[in-house]
Specification:
single chain, 335 residues, alpha/beta, 11 helices
Length: 335
């Protein structure tokens, strides 16, 4: 009876002071209720003691990135694990593709991060066009995307409008100007900054200039404050360049004239055929020997050719031998 009376008195005192409910916060206060809810993705705005993931140590790493794009990832890491078993080393960068209008794949980003790797997103603006992005018409979508990126609190590399110096995409040279591309890029970057999505590595990703020598890259450069990595796309084909410098050198020299940002080969593979084993050796050896190149992403998806390394046993053997070098691969820090 005495215990019951004391409990009744305590509740009455709490009601008088407004300290009812879980954590001594009023249940009818929406702000208080929201503050009690844990953020699913580690939203640092609701948890001031949780700092945004700092990507700066990843921008110029001590070792090289070893990346792969493979069907099924990052929704599942099983395909990445299977690739790792095939080549004898776990990739620490996982490539993916996202069309404009798609939600950010937060679950995929967490899958990759929890595996000690970095998610790389090629964000493809097939529509509505760079002008509509640059003028703010798409800001609602961009803000939602940026908010989800921020809430994962995992590092993410984002490349917007890759291969912009080519004519084969709708954001390329046939339909859009360099000025439109730069304006759209800067606007997206600024929206992300305003939303607090600072856990992004921004990757400016032209195609190698060899097939489009008259398109100069400098006009497409958003500026050093808007870019963290240069991500060069360049594939090894049976009739194309046969040395590392022949494939990547002309692009590398153009880039060096206006920035010293690190270079990632953001998409590459070697076409099956007589040269494939040698091309694998040239690719991995060239990245290994070049201080300005921080790694590569191997496209291991059959698309117009069977780019999968396991489709060529001799090339696979060379790949396994060279990627075993300790210069390639490292665990992406969890904080």
């Amino acid at each position: 009876m005495i215990r019951k009376s004391l409990l009744t008195l305590a509740v009455a005192l709490m009601s008088l002071t407004g300290l009812t409910g879980c954590g001594f916060l009023a249940d009818d206060d929406p702000a208080a209720a929201a503050a009690r809810e844990p953020s699913a993705g580690g939203d640092s705005s609701n948890h001031p003691d949780v700092l945004p993931y700092d990507v700066k140590p990843l921008i110029r790493p001590d070792k090289k990135f070893f990346g792969v794009a493979v069907d099924g990832a990052p929704d599942s890491m099983k395909p990445v694990d299977a690739f790792a078993r095939t080549v004898g080393k776990k990739p620490n960068l996982v490539g993916s593709y996202s069309s404009w209008g798609d939600d950010f794949n937060a679950e995929g980003a967490r899958n990759v991060f929890e595996a000690g790797s970095l998610l790389y997103v090629s964000w493809e603006p097939f529509k509505p066009g760079l002008g509509s992005i640059a003028d703010g018409s798409q800001d609602g979508y961009v803000k939602r995307f940026a908010k989800k990126v921020r809430e994962t609190n995992a590092p993410v590399a984002i490349s917007f409008g890759h291969e912009m110096n080519g004519h084969w995409y709708p954001w390329g040279t046939k339909k859009q100007t360099a000025r439109e591309f730069v304006t759209a890029w800067r606007h997206i970057h600024d929206v992300f900054q305003d939303e607090g999505a600072t856990n992004v590595i921004w990757v400016w990703s032209p195609n190698v200039v060899n097939p489009v020598p008259d398109v100069k890259l400098k006009a497409y450069w958003p500026g050093d404050t808007y870019v963290d990595w240069v991500g060069v796309v360049g594939y090894w084909t049976q009739t194309g360049a046969s040395t590392f410098d022949a494939l990547y050198g002309p692009t590398r020299r153009q880039i060096a004239a206006f920035t010293d940002k690190p270079i990632l080969i953001s998409e590459t593979s070697a076409e099956p055929g007589e040269r494939r084993r040698a091309d694998v050796r040239r690719l991995i050896g060239g990245v290994r020997q070049s201080d300005d190149f921080i790694g590569f992403v191997w496209f291991n998806i059959p698309k117009r050719a069977d780019w999968r390394i396991q489709s060529s046993p001799l090339a696979l053997g060379e790949f396994k031998r060279l990627i075993a070098d300790d210069a390639f691969g490292f665990e992406v820090p969890q904080s």
